[in-house]
Specification:
single chain, 4 helices, four-stranded antiparallel β-sheet, 6 strands, alpha+beta
């Protein structure tokens, strides 16, 4: 069997199953699969994505950009952890870090910021 089609020990899908390089390539080409959350707040962009490749089995990453420059970069072990960190950063940059939980769902934040950017 071609090496590209065998499960790889450092490549993971969003459910943390080991996948082949060929499968990773399929998934990575799907924007909706890769993006966990993306919010633009003024000159700040908070982006959480599934990277899929990680020696330490941390296949998710959040990067905060200010004026297009990365200022924080955090890796996450699973999607729930990635979403929680993403929402924490969104609350912080909205000035709502004192609120325990946002009264909206992650999907609603993404829909709102997508419509604002168009």
């Amino acid at each position: 069997m071609n090496e590209h089609f065998k499960p790889h020990p450092f490549i993971w899908d969003r459910d943390l199953n080991s996948i082949s390089l060929a499968r990773w390539n399929e998934l990575y080409s799907q924007f909706g699969y890769v993006v966990v959350g993306r919010t633009q707040i003024s000159n700040v962009l908070i982006s959480t994505v599934w990277i899929g490749i990680s020696v330490a089995k941390r296949p998710f990453e959040t990067i905060v950009f200010i004026d297009g420059e990365p200022v924080t970069d955090e890796r996450h072990a699973n999607e729930a952890e990635a979403q929680e960190y993403y929402l924490t950063k969104v609350k912080f940059y909205l000035g709502l870090e004192h609120i325990g939980a946002l009264p909206v769902k992650l999907e609603e934040i993404n829909e709102e910021t997508d419509s604002e950017s168009q």
